[in-house]
Design goal:
By secondary structure, the protein is α+β, with helices and mostly antiparallel strands. It is 28% helix and 37% strand. Strands 1, 2, 3, 4, 5, 6 and 7 form a seven-stranded mixed beta sheet that branches. It is globular.
């Protein structure tokens, strides 16, 4: 149901991969619900980021990482993402994390960047970087995708 709501056209099954992180105990996949319908979510990793461009500048010890943030269009600007992020921050702090970070698309996501800034996240000031990930589509083909992003971080 979550896969169909959040990524109906994405053959790579990202929602399943996020749930697998939770099953391995490496984080929690937080999902906001309204009337038995998933309306938003974030995955919080208990460690990260693992990107070389970030780790060469920052000590990421005791840092959590948010990824995969989304809110269904009709529920945007209604506090869904804020509530999920605040719960992720609470859980990360409970796990002993001193910081939490996330990547935000550097060119096509100004609304998200503004939300993160409003919640206290700051641009790390080392410019943008490219993150890439490999995945296997449901048809078995391997694929690599990438995106230019800015890393943002917040002290907990």
């Amino acid at each position: 149901m979550i896969e169909n709501m959040f990524s109906p056209d994405d053959m790579s099954n990202p929602q399943y991969r996020r749930f697998e992180v939770q099953q391995r105990g490496e984080g929690v996949y937080l999902i906001g619900w309204y009337n038995n319908t998933p309306i938003g979510g974030f995955l919080v990793h208990w460690s990260g980021p693992n990107d070389d461009h970030v780790t060469k500048y920052l000590d990421i010890t005791h840092s959590a990482m948010l990824e995969g943030g989304l809110t269904i269009d009709e529920y945007r600007r209604k506090g869904v993402a804020t509530a999920i992020i605040q719960e992720a921050e609470r859980l990360a702090k409970e796990k002993g994390c001193a910081h939490i970070g996330l990547f935000v698309a550097s060119t096509n996501n100004p609304g998200s960047k503004q939300l993160y800034e409003k919640l206290g996240y700051i641009d790390w000031e080392y410019g943008e970087c490219t993150v890439s990930w490999e995945f296997i589509e449901t048809n078995g083909n391997k694929r690599i995708d990438s995106e230019n992003v800015i890393y943002m971080r917040k002290s907990l």
